[in-house]
Specification:
The chain is α/β, with parallel strands linked by helices. α1 links the parallel β1 and β2. The protein binds 5'-deoxyadenosine and iron/sulfur cluster.
């Protein structure tokens, strides 16, 4: 039988979809296909911003006709949106043709839910308040070779006032270091070349008393030709020890994703981020002192309640001062149940739109400048994919720079050294050395 999975959101969700594929395989759905031919369609949803939800609802709604034509088709919906308070009821009411709704804490039950659904006409809903076991025991069907994601923590305890993640992903739980190391060893043995350690806040990892820098040290000490990356880091938990471990191992990517969210101390405090602009910049200075060429990327939000023009301006100046090589930029989106959604002084959409345009422009200019400086340099990229439309192989280097080159044979999974001849936005074009 055939399956189709539609994934929204972050790396965590992309990896979870690999686990969903593993479960579907165990249920007899062993061939991936488009929606039209599928016997089961799974939506793995995101609720971090309203547009992520609207997008998912739009796509689920569009399946009504397909389901009518093909009543044997199963439609399941899981992920963060399914876990949101009241959403399962809403889905049952609005989209009665959805067969299964499952939350973020009970992925392991998906097989049982599919079996249950085969025996009933009703929508099967299964949600849990908290993750019971840290180890889910699911063997993922990995789709991102030569990269592999490895969860190290689940959930988040930070309660940034704008963010819904702690409500839908529960309290932070760390996997045992032995489990993580075993998984990474197996992946390296199997030929994966980049291992990304995943958590909402990897810096607060604490598995059987082991902290993140020690875990990272151990992961990077595993023998073999591979790179290690990690995300996401919270600036409040960033440490000298972490920088020391990064410096010690050339296997650890020379890039750090450190979400700043805002450049204004007043907004950072309202966001409950627990650091100041100065502390943030000091962390970057420390990183650059030890690893001068390390690239830093970030997440930035504009239009947080009560944000003034001047405070937004501080986010713009942060982009320069911190020297971000790129940034994910977002318009603040009120999420029901979070503190910020209740705050006075919500910013009108037209104001936020202007701010995001200015921010994107500022970030892009900096990205282009950095790219242009790469012309003439050499880059060692890990080849990730082939872009059939452009006719180029592409991959990223340890700094996160995207390199394109031509080759007449399959190069995916190889480390290739390129001499950069042209920069086009973030894309660097080169010739193999
Ligand atoms: N509105 C806009 N952006 C948000 N993020 C999280 N919650 C919201 C929200 N309510 C952004 C943050 C976070 C990234 C994953 O998504 O920048 O780092
Ligand atoms: Fe959300 Fe903050 Fe946790 Fe990140 S650290 S997931 S922004 S609450």
């Amino acid at each position: 039988m055939k399956y189709h999975i539609t994934t929204y959101g972050c790396q965590m969700n992309l990896h979870e979809s690999e686990k969903i594929a593993g479960i579907l395989n165990a249920c007899g759905y062993d061939e991936e296909c488009g929606e039209e031919e599928a016997d089961i369609i799974v939506f793995n949803t995101c609720c971090i911003r309203e547009n992520a939800e609207n997008h998912a609802f739009g796509n689920i709604g569009a399946l009504k006709k397909l389901k009518k034509r093909k009543p044997s088709l199963l439609i399941a919906m899981g992920g963060c949106m399914a876990q949101e308070a009241g959403k399962a009821e809403y889905i049952k009411r609005k989209f009665p043709f959805v067969d299964i709704v499952f939350g973020t804490h009970n992925l392991c039950e998906l097989q049982a839910l599919i079996e249950k659904k085969r025996a009933t006409k009703k929508t099967v809903v299964s949600l849990k308040e908290e993750r019971e076991m840290v180890e889910d025991g699911i063997t993922p069907v990995r789709k991102s070779y030569p990269n592999a994601w490895v969860n190290i923590t689940y959930g988040c305890n930070n309660f940034c006032t704008y963010c819904i993640v702690p409500y839908v992903r529960g309290r932070e739980k760390s996997r045992a270091p032995e489990e993580i190391l075993k998984e990474v060893e197996e992946l390296v043995q199997a030929g994966y070349k980049e291992i990304t350690l995943l958590g909402q806040n990897v810096n607060s990892y604490s598995g059987n008393g082991m902290r993140f820098p020690e875990l990272l040290d151990k992961v990077a000490s595993i023998g073999g030709n591979f790179r290690v990356a990690f995300m996401t880091s919270h600036p409040k938990d960033f440490s000298e020890e972490l920088v020391a471990v990064m410096k010690k191992h050339s296997k650890i990517c020379r890039r750090l994703h450190l979400p700043a969210q805002s450049g204004s101390d007043r907004i950072l405090s309202l966001m409950n981020r627990r650091y100041t602009r100065e502390k943030y910049l000091n962390e970057i200075a420390l990183l650059r002192r030890e690893i001068p060429d390390c690239e830093v990327t970030t997440d930035l939000i504009v239009g947080f309640p009560t944000e003034t023009e001047e405070e937004f301006g501080e986010t713009l100046t942060l982009v320069r001062e911190a020297g971000f090589s790129s940034a994910f930029t977002f318009v603040y989106s009120p999420r029901a149940g979070t503190k910020a959604a209740e705050m006075e002084g919500q910013i009108p959409e037209d104001v936020s739109k202007l701010r995001i345009m200015r921010l994107v422009e500022c970030v892009n200019r900096q990205t282009r400048e950095k790219s242009a400086r790469c012309v003439g340099q050499t880059l060692e990229i890990l080849v990730e994919d082939y872009d059939g439309k452009k006719g180029f192989y592409l991959g990223r280097d340890s700094y996160g720079r995207m390199g394109y080159f031509k080759s007449d044979r399959d190069r995916v999974g190889e480390f290739v050294t390129l001499k950069i001849t042209k920069a086009n936005g973030v894309s660097l074009f080169g010739e193999e050395q």
